[in-house]
Amino acid sequence: MVKTKKTRRKVRHGQWSSGWVFVLAAGGAVIGLNNVWEFPYYAGQYGGGAFVIVYLGSLLILGLPLLMTQITLGRLGRASPIFSIKALIERSGSEPSWVALGGIITLTGFLVFSYLSVIAGWTLAYCLRAAAGSFDGLTADGVNGIFTAFVSDPEKQIFWHSLFLVMTMVVVARGVKSGFEPVVKLVTPLLIVLLAVLLAYAVAAKEIGPALVHLFYPDFSRLSNEALLIALGHAFFSLGLGFGAMMVYGAYLPARTSVGVVSLMVIILDILVGLLAAGFIYAVLLAGGEAVTQGPELIFQAVPLALDPLPLSRPIGALFFLLLGLAAWLTAIALIEPAVAWLLERWGLSRFTAAILCGLAAWTLGVVTILSFNYWKFDFEFLGPRSLGFFDGLQILTSNFLLPLSGMFVALFAGWSLDRELVRKALALRPRYVFHVWLWLVRLVVPVLLLVLMVAISKLFL
User: Fold this and answer.
1) Does pLDDT of 130 surpass 70?
2) Domain 2-461 CATH class label
3) pTM score, two decimals?
4) Which residues lie below 8 Å from residue 20, measured CB to CB, with a gap of 6+?
């Protein structure tokens, strides 16, 4: 009976046609917005090359082993995170309560998807505005006024949120072979091409040299304890390691593909995108005489303002926001897939029906998020003053608690609860001592680092 169910899930979900397609899908999913609106600021603030070195180290000791763990769990379970963990509990004789971990992972991805769809809608709107010249000749107050008016207009935001959500669910409803693969094969390489075009523009702006010096010249005097924690946090969040995305994508990974190789390729792609984006943003801000900030303020205010006096500001601005929208699209597809896969397995629904149900639920939460920017906003005190009500609450819940907790318990589950020989064979690491390095990183180092991160995160990220 169990074998029949597993076989049915494999057929139903499909499989990536090759390991390279998996790298494109997973790499596209981790590009996200964090690499664009946070990494340049962090690198500039905390010692340039010194921060980059610590960030690379964080990727090796935290990002790589945890990424390998999630992919392996998915490939062993061959199902959604919930059913994969349930199957692995049965195979290893683990404590049954571990099944709750799959639910937490799936819920976290769904919640983040609901508000990512809102922010991604902003990038679509700004792509058209940049192309139309809406920012031409505006002062800082004018650009800030456009952004403030936009996020205070629920009707416009609901339109763009709905458009982005429909774009995402159409792909998810078509499944791995007909939906995911054609999109990632086209969009992920396109993102790299767009980044290369933007970087070439930055070179032409003649500020790429100072930008690269500012970003990558190592100044270890600015590398504080806070910088170390931020580098660690960015390595965790930029790879999306608290979601079920890598686990469910791992469930579709061909059996003979090396988990270690594809994990390393995904991390290299993540690093490449971060460096390219940082080079472009810093060069543009220096050429336009704007200060480097982070988050929405950087993307929706500083960059449009800095581009305005530069040549070709309209098409370059449009390409920049198109890049952000496409990156968010690939991330969104990965975030919602665990919930859709669970509906397929638990209730026997068609992919189309499961996508519709998940889409409607996420759309509703997204509308509540939009209204919290205006009509439904309220103030509260938790880890500091909050003024955006529901949206702030969702961010605190996911970023402060669910994401690091999910990553920590995934490591503990794989390191201590699963049958050791089962995991060793699935990882197939050579030479044998490499497996033991991975094992003790996952058992001890990763959980401790995530615990430290969770304790410190309220001061660093909020």
Assistant:
1) yes
2) mainly alpha
3) 0.93
4) none
